[in-house]
Amino acid sequence: MLRVVSWNINGIRSPLQGVVNQEPSNCATMAMGRILDELDADIVCLQETKVTRDVLTEPLAIVEGYNSYFSFSRNRSGYSGVATFCKDHATPVAAEEGLSGLLATQKGDVGCCGSMDEFTQEELRALDSEGRALLTQHKICTREGKERTLTLINVYCPHADPGKPERLTFKMRFYRLLQIRAEALLEAGSHVIILGDLNTAHRPIDHWDAVNLEGFEEDPGRKWMDGLLSNLSCQSGSHVGPFIDSYRYFQPKQKGAFTCWSVVTGARPLNYGSRLDYVLGDRTLVIDTFQASFLLHEVMGSDHCPVGAVLSVSPVPAKQCPPLCTRFLPEFAGTQLKILRFLVPLEQDPVLEQSALQLSNQTRVQTCQNKGRVRSTRSRPSQAGSSRGQKNLKSYFQPSSSRPQASPDLELPSLPLMDALITPKTSEEEATTRVAEGQAKASEAKDEKEVRTSFWKSVLGGPMATPLCGGHREPCVMRTVKKPGPNLGRRFYMCARPRGPPTDPASRCNFFLWIRPN
């Protein structure tokens, strides 16, 4: 059996935070291995890793028992990125970054790129620059004992921001490139699995509020999926695409099968989400070898949950990992980098090089002459001064002559009259006086503090008491407007419960209250 799992991890270091704190050695290697063991798959495909090569650490990249492959965003740090972890008994025979073939190194690549004539070179580079696709090609053995080729395309498709129409165009071009590459691999004789975050809820059953979304069926992303996938719900005359949605193949009418929820609205507890993550297989592969397709709702750590499938085939490991494997990166290969690798030799003109050498010699001679001149003109200490020896530190401290010194033989005259007028106090009287003075000072300080406190209380009214929501009579939560506009930065109160269907009484009510500025 071959078990594959896909998970939009929303930052490869995010799920490790809770796991690392539980580890006795606080080791990220053990934490990453524990996550992979929990997913219990032969091949794990991760999306939205949000790491670039310069911040990728060895504990995240090198896990015992696995070989890993990463694709990084080349434009932004902490953005996008995908990774594939394969167990050693499922080592791929080839691995490649990107869909266009421009990032291929011609050694250990998957190949079979198809016709890219409808794209320009600049467009292909832009589509592959965000680290959204990673291909691994494996050898599998069927139940009949036949060896076949299986190519996994791990993808994190772009999100179409309504406020940025150019991103919708980018998304649709990425879809087109993905379809061309997948169909080219099929034509070359390889089985193909497309798995990952496609960022589109295909059918109304895959979205919590599809009936209230205007033009749901007319969305260009859904139309693209209609052409890519076979429609299994219809009878004769239905569209037959090259791929099958494996989950709907086994669970065609399962409602609430969502894989993504909003973290801001806390929608996961009430399952108020959508299905954006898929395992798509070519028709022959799904019908002949797929045994199950599943969602892992119980796995936390991201705003997505893992999805996966089980195939009735056995992986045939390659003898060695492809060159794209992270263990071959110089920073993880155990080889020390020489400083010469960071320096580029400059080719100089022989005439310029000879003149530079002459200038260097002249500078060296002039420097020696200057040193000799300085050494000869330096003043030497006299023989008499050197014979005096080292001075004592006390010799630098002399008594000041400006202050008159009292003579030891001088006696001050006594004043008997003043002695008679001053009568010394007893110790009890002094103690009583000190206590009275202390109490008076404390009383004055207390009165002054109370006056200041009452003054500021009259000026500042203090924070507003947290209101209760109208639907549940429970304390509200305070939020801040972050969307650009006239209300940017304003704060408001709303119901603290998670978002859910309007018909569910346990979901958030419509209470809303602006916070007035002081």
Your description of this structure?
Strands 5, 6, 7, 8, 9, 12 and 15 form a seven-stranded mixed beta sheet that branches. The protein is an alpha+beta fold. 28% of the residues lie in helices and 18% in strands. The longest helix is centred in the C-terminal third of the chain and has 33 residues, at 427-459. The protein has helices at 16-22, 28-39, 58-61, 121-128, 165-187, 220-228, 246-250, 283-289, 350-377, 383-387, 416-421, 427-459; strands spanning 2-8, 43-47, 66-71, 82-87, 94-97, 133-141, 147-156, 191-197, 243-245, 260-261, 273-274, 277-282, 290-295, 307-311, 314-316, 477-480, 491-494, 512-514. It contains twelve helices and 18 strands. GO terms for molecular function: DNA binding; double-stranded DNA 3'-5' DNA exonuclease activity; endonuclease activity; zinc ion binding. Keywords: Cytoplasm, DNA damage, DNA recombination, DNA repair, DNA-binding, Endonuclease, Exonuclease, Hydrolase, Magnesium, Manganese, Metal-binding, Mitochondrion, Nuclease, Nucleus, Zinc, Zinc-finger. Its cofactor is Mg(2+); Mn(2+). It is found in: Nucleus; Cytoplasm; Mitochondrion. The record marks 277 as: Important for catalytic activity.
Amino- and carboxy-terminal Cα gap:
65 Å
Helix content: 25-40%
Report the average pLDDT across residues: 82
Determine the structural class based on helices, strands and strand pairing.
alpha+beta
Order of helices and strands: EHHEHEEEHEEHEHEHEEEHEEEHHHHEEE
Helical stretch tally: 12
Tertiary shape: extended
> How many β-strand runs?
18
Question: Strand content of the residues, in percent?
Answer: 15-25%
The profile of the biggest β sheet is: 7 strands, mixed
Return residue spans where pLDDT drops below 50 for at least 5 consecutive residues.
Answer: 18-26, 381-387, 406-410, 415-421
Rg over CA atoms: 39 Å
